[in-house]
Amino acid sequence: MSTCKVLVTRPKIIDDVLINPGIGFMTFQRFNGDNLNEGKGWTEGFPIVYQDFDGNLENENHPMTSIAYFRIYWKYIEQEKGSYNWELIDKALATARARKQTLMLRIAPYGANDEEDVPAWYRELLGKPPEKFDGPGWMVDAEDPTYAEYFGGFIRALGRRYDGHPDMESVDLSIVGSWGEGIGSNLLTRTTREALVDAYTDSFKETPLVMLLTDKKTNGYGLSQADVGWRVDCLGDVCGKAWEFSDDWSHMNDYYPQQLIRSGMQEAWKKAPVSLEVCWVVQHWKDMGWDIDYIIDQSLKWHISSFNAKSSPIPKEWEPNVNRWLNKMGYRLALRKFSFPETVKPGGKLAFASWWENLGVAPCYKKFPLALRLKGDQSTQVFITDANISDWLPGDSLFDSTVWIPADMPLGNYQLEIAILYGHTHQPAIQLANTGRQPDGWYVLGNVEVQLELESPDVIE
After folding, report:
1. In this model, does residue 5 exceed pLDDT 50?
2. Rounded to the nearest 10 degrees, how much is the dihedral formed by the CA atoms of 303, 72, 252, 317?
3. By three-state DSSP, how is residue 108 classified?
4. Residue 444 — pLDDT band, cuts 50, 70, 90?
5. Does the pLDDT at position 2 exceed 50?
6. Average pLDDT, integer, range 197-210
7. Which of these, 8, 74, 223, 281, has the minimum number of CB atoms within 10 Å of its CB?
8. Is the pLDDT reported for residue 178 higher than 60?
9. What does the pLDDT read at residue 137?
10. How far is Cα 454 from Cα 461, in angstroms, rounded to an integer?
11. How many CA atoms lie within 13 A of 165 on its CB side?
């Protein structure tokens, strides 16, 4: 008995920089198309000052991005006890969506001075901060039970409103210290630490959480409650003489590699994102003579998914280095081989086999559906598979499955296509590192004939 032919396609790999959800550079207190910060300065913690937008999403002297990062102090959201100014976050989410971005968010409890203090109503309740907490960067004594009650209560309200929002990329698990960076978290009692961390892990079950890399007890407890990622806010500091307290100490050589091990966060990247932030700005790296390729390679070793350059210009001569970085940062999915039958019948099945390679350094942490599409002159049918692409770690993955053809599918020739979609819109989301992408985001695999009489197919492998 003759068998129906199995077709095999091996899409070509491309080396283009791809702008994909949840990875790459991000804008900071800004959005795609906005002017960058001038010189070597930046702003953070305050409400966004929105710029006039002319419709051009390009970022001059800065890569295009899929993420906008918003960091704001608690005082601006809860100006009155129990009354929340969600409009500040809603507007940022809507603007990000309009600029083809999602929003990464940190609510910092306070900064480092009176202008960056906790909400006025809470300061009035507490009185002046004790002097003994100046050292670890606390504007309030976190052991005061009202801190976990009120700041923790605010975070729970935040989760009730925004957990799972399709435009919310991730939320920083920020509990104490100036700018929410976790300074002094090692000083917390177990009761306080767990109450503050629980406020996040109880409230954000769908939106990824990213913890500041701080200490073993805090990071370890966070990991015990949820799949949390990690972040640090001084990537690039590689030599001494940059800090007043030491001539030979640096984050890159004396803190991050060691603390990543001590905190137990080395394997966290497999389940949740690593998001890193520039120390000062990238131009400062160049002015200091720091090795950009060393910094890039260290971040890739730590499985970076996204990077905050603080919306400051990237030195022109470093663009090739940055493009190399972008082609490894986060996930980079390539379809290596796809096998499928040449013919199918209405009410029958289309069995297929696929080999994928993740050329990046991290998985995709959100469950974007993988779909097939049969596109013909009379009918187009989309088939959502049960692939879980968040399991596709760097390296090779196989996904073999079957989709069923509707019994009323019109006979004829169809173009078989593939795409990874947004879960909420079922529109193409992720660009593959392959040729064959059409203007609507689907990738062509070949042709399938829908006909009535079929022989048994060859083995799909």
Report:
1. yes
2. 80
3. strand
4. very high
5. no
6. 98
7. 8
8. yes
9. 84
10. 19
11. 23
In eight-state DSSP terms, residue 4 is: B
Query: What six digits make up the tokens of 121?
Result: 């109503």
Residue 388: C-alpha distances to residues 7, 103, 206, 384 (Å): 24, 23, 15, 11
**Alpha-carbon span 154 to 146, nearest angstrom:** 12
Instruction: Return the structure tokens found at 93.
Output: 């989410």
Q: Do residues 429 and 323 make contact, with C-beta atoms less than 8 angstroms apart? A: no
The CA distance from 449 to 413, in Å, is 5
Q: Are 397 and 337 in contact (CB under 8 A)?
A: no
The rounded distance, in Å, linking the Cα atoms of 431 and 326 is 14
Confirm if 37 and 80 have CB atoms less than 8 A apart: no
The bridge status of strand 274-278 relative to strand 306-308 is parallel
What is the side-by-side order of every strand in the sheet holding 395-404? Answer: 6-9, 333-341, 349-358, 395-404
CA of 16: how far to CAs of 327, 328, 346, 421, in Å? 8, 11, 39, 20
Nearest-angstrom CA–CA distance, 317 and 214: 34
| ∠ Cα 146 173 367 (to 5°) | 140
Largest CA distance in the chain: 88
- Residue 173 in tokens: 């698990």
Average pLDDT (394-412) is 97
H/E element holding 124? helix 120-126
Whose CA is closest to 66, among 206, 167, 217?
167
Burial profile 356-381: b = 16 or more Cβ within 10 angstroms, e = fewer: bbbbbbbbbbbebbbbbbbbbeeeeb
Using 50, 70 and 90 to split pLDDT, how confident is the model at 1?
A: very low
Asked whether the beta carbons of 96 and 31 are under 8 A apart, the reply is yes
| CA gap 64, 432 in Å, rounded | 17
The secondary structure of 85-106 as a DSSP string is -THHHHHHHHHHHHTT-EEEEE
Going by their DSSP bridges, the two strands 370-375 and 412-421 should be labelled as antiparallel
| Single-letter code of the amino acid located at 427 | Q
**In the predicted model, what is the mean pLDDT of the chain?**
94
- Integer-rounded Cα Rg, in Å, for the chain is 25
Q: Do residues 22 and 368 touch, judged by C-beta distance below 8 A?
A: no
Kindly report, residue by residue over 14-67, the tens digit of the pLDDT: 999 999 999 999 999 999 999 999 989 999 999 999 999 999 999 999 999 999
- Taking the C-alpha atoms of residue 359 and residue 429, their distance in angstroms, rounded to an integer, is 18
Per-residue pLDDT at 239: 78
Q: Is the pTM of this model over 0.85?
A: yes
Q: What is the mean pLDDT of residues 403-426?
A: 97
